[in-house]
Design brief:
With 209 residues, the chain is mostly helical. It has 2 domains: 68 residues, no CATH class; 113 residues. 70% of the residues lie in helices and 0% in strands.
């Protein structure tokens, strides 16, 4: 079974749904997928990432035993490895009610100040998933997002990241108290250098102002 799985992961378009159903609950297969998140072959690594995210969404209890492996990836020197962890970990929150995530909360959101521009975008994109499981974290998550200006990223890169931040703020807006602070932040992005961010800001303000 493991040989067949490894072969399928080398394919450009494997049937992810079928693979998900076939390996859920098989710890050896899951370990192969987790190890594949750091594999050197792009296609194989990409398929492992897609598969583990799908498994985390549908059967988080099966993936949770590999929590420590995923947390270690948050500190990886490889951007793709960090992104894999960022995309999987939020889906595991329901397994223990968020106790494990609470222990890595700061580490997770520190990726907003990542050396690369990609992880901050993934942090923002996963905020809604985190809050869907732990609504009481909404306020402090929004506060982290609004502090993007304090990160080391150069201005142009911050403007790119802000498109995803605005999307996250849009989904969290009704759940938080500091709406005026959010509106001020978004209004400023009408003049930013990124066309995508300017468009997101205009759409946000049309809905919420």
């Amino acid at each position: 079974m493991l040989a067949e799985l490894a072969s399928a992961l080398h394919e450009k378009n494997p049937d992810i749904e079928t693979l998900t159903r076939s390996i859920a609950g098989n710890n050896e297969a899951l370990k192969l997928i987790i190890d594949g998140l750091t594999f050197s072959v792009d296609t194989y690594r990409y398929n492992c990432n897609t598969l583990i995210v799908q498994l985390a969404r549908t059967t988080p209890k099966a993936v949770f035993p590999f929590w420590d492996d995923l947390v270690r990836l948050l500190q990886s020197s490889n951007t793709y490895h960090r992104c894999s962890a960022l995309n999987v970990i939020p889906h595991l929150i329901p397994v223990d009610g968020g106790a494990a995530f609470d222990g890595v909360f700061d580490r997770y959101f520190s990726r907003l100040d990542d050396e690369s521009v990609i992880p901050p975008c993934y942090v923002a994109r996963n905020c809604h998933t985190i809050v869907s499981h732990r609504p009481e974290w909404s306020q402090q998550i929004v506060e982290r997002l609004l502090r993007i200006e304090e990160t080391h990223h150069e201005a142009g890169r911050k403007d790119l990241i802000k498109a995803d931040i605005i999307e996250a703020l849009d989904r969290l807006f009704d759940a938080v108290d500091n709406k005026s602070e959010i509106l001020v932040f978004v209004e400023k992005q009408l003049e930013c250098s990124s066309p995508k961010t300017r468009k997101a800001a205009a759409a946000f303000l049309q809905r919420h102002r």
